[in-house]
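Researcher: We're teaching a course module on how sequence relates to structure. For the next exercise, students receive a sequence and then see the predicted structure as tokens, so they can try to spot secondary structure elements on their own. Here is the exercise chain.
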Amino acid sequence: MITRWLLLFLLITLATGFRYKGGYRKGSYKKYGVGRPSYNKKVPSYGKKVPAYGNSYGNKYVYSKKPVRLIPRCTTSKTWVDIVVVGPDGAGCANALVYYVDDSIMRKVHTDYNGKSKVLISGCKISLIVTAKDVQPAYKTHTLYNCKGDTEQIVIQQYTKCNYKVYFYNINDYYNGGDLVNCVWTSHDGSSSGEKQTGTGVAVAYKSPLCVNWEYVADSDTGSLKVIGTAQSSTEIFLLHVTRQDTAVAVNIPPLVKDKYCYLVCFNVWQKGYAYSGLYYISNPQVLSTDGADDVYLHEDGNCFWFDDLDKDKDYVIATQFEGKDGTYLEGNAQVVDSHGRCNTEEIPYASYTAYHWWRVWCICKGNKDAKKLKAVNDGGFDAGNSYYLDPYVCDSVCNPGASPS
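Model: And here is the predicted structure for the students to work with:
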């Protein structure tokens, strides 16, 4: 009996040893495609091909070489913002009042003596309104999506405070608008000190007026405002020069002229008190010789016209009518530019306009081609005439002082 149990034990021991030696110890893992992983190998770097576990199936995972897209920091934590307010002179604007709005609430702070203030905001966008003494309010919106650290700096430029608006109009681009305007302006306040203000500005026709300073003294003719510049749509310059202050002023943007010309004449004229609503259109402009025989051919475009042929032995008058109603008061000026870029301006008479009356602006003496030498008629109002007849003889006395009219 004992012998049988001993033989059975020996058989089981031999069988177990055979399976362990030939199976598990010598490749039973590989047989089933598992393999024995090594824990001593270095971890491969990103961007290289890395064998996958179970590589006997023939598959390999590849790490992408594209950078991982990080979530903007401002979406998960607050951000410190350094607000720097710079005055018109480039120095820090002390004690400026800053209103700011983030994702939580509106708050206000004051800048220190260096024009700086530091605030902690929530979210990825901040809107600011900055006010200070003797400067224009400034508005700015700033996003923080590209902020990599915990602090962002925002610089806000302040400009001299203004009290007057200049509207620009491009008659040929009425429906589209958006004509970019660059200009320089100068004003005198009309006081005994004759204080002068200057500035540069950018505006958009029909959309955003230029804001300037003009401290005008009532019932004084010594104050003046001059605006000169160019627009994106034209290489011709515009020039506004007025001495009477209205609620605002309007400027006509000249067309792009490709023809040869001696003079380009444009009118910056609006109905008193309505500069914001547009220009007053000219009607039936003329350049006529004083003998009535030479009616110069004009190229017309909107509130401008240009011409070239002049007889050097004749005198001419430049005049126009307006598409206006009786009793309308007009404001503004006429401007003229010659082929060499020389300019001249004349302010419209301050008088009630009657339909079909003429504004006789300048006299061209002996075919002169220098805009600065044009002589203003200055007859104090509008010539009656009629819708067809223009009296040019006024230029006989203007061009030839002391001579009797023809």
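Model: If you want an answer key for the exercise: Residues 2-24 form the longest helix (23 residues). The chain has three helices and 26 strands.
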